[in-house]
Amino acid sequence: MTVALFGGSFDPVHNGHVNVVRSLLERVTDIDRVIIMPAAVNPFKAQTGTSASAEDRLQMCRLAFGHIPLCTVSDYEISKSGISYTVNTLEWLKESCPECRIILTVGSDSLESLPKWHRAEDIFRMADIAAVSRSAQDNLRIAAFAEKAQSAGARVMIVETEPFEVSSTQIREKILKNQDISCYMDKNVVEYILSRHIYERRK
């Protein structure tokens, strides 16, 4: 069995994240399951005053990915709380399915820092890396990062996906300014955010 792991803060989840999963399934045809893994605390991202709660981020992921075949959203990292180190999640997956091939899905920025991640050598041992490229310009950057990661022992494949230039940070800023966000994410996620007043400035 081949399992793809796609983790992140998803604060909030948007169409760029969904595009990654769709592209991965289109280009790596032997994937049997995609696990979406919202982080409890991302060790690379500071918490801000307008961040969503772990439970809200989990629910938004369920709304965004629930209709995509082979996708499941896991609460493993959120339920154990604390900092979410990828290596620990991979060990959990390996214990659950010792014979599974695991594909860790990362963006170009994450690929650049990957050799410096906590216990990177164990990550490379347990998982193949699917590096997601979002543009022709990104292809050049990601190829250089892939070569660096491979020299550190990683097995890297590059997966091209549909360009998506807006980040979660920019979406949060648009919400603070009462700007329309409907073109950036699933309508059910938009409704969830607006109905719960998520990302609005706290008084």
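(the above was protein one; protein two follows)
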Amino acid sequence: MIQTRNKINPSFDSASMSDLVFLLLIFFMLTSTLISPNAIKLLLPKSTSGQTLAKQNVVVAIDANYKYYVENIETSEAELPEILGGFLKDVTDGTVKLHSDKTVPVQYVVTIIDAVNKVNAQQGKKHKVILATEPSK
């Protein structure tokens, strides 16, 4: 009688499968935290014009507590021209995209425009300010 020495083991080793699931979980957790482009909570004003801008050089935000943020870094009103000038020094015709909460008084928006105008006067350039809006339904 001939006997086979190779026996089939019916058990399944799931160690490699659990490693793969764990790595996928880490990957999705890391990428989901990087997707948040705007960490400052704002309610943007609504607009019916659907124009979009291809590229903005600097993003400035004003939240509901009237705090200024340049590229998500809190900035005082006095530091605005200096910090904006630093971001725009190598740009000829830059664009400053302004995210302002809809409850913010217009004077705070004008302060940003004045800061950009001051940078334009100092650097002899023509940077412009655009206001980010939310599409109306």
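Reviewer note on protein two: Residues 27 and 33 are 10 Å apart (CA to CA).
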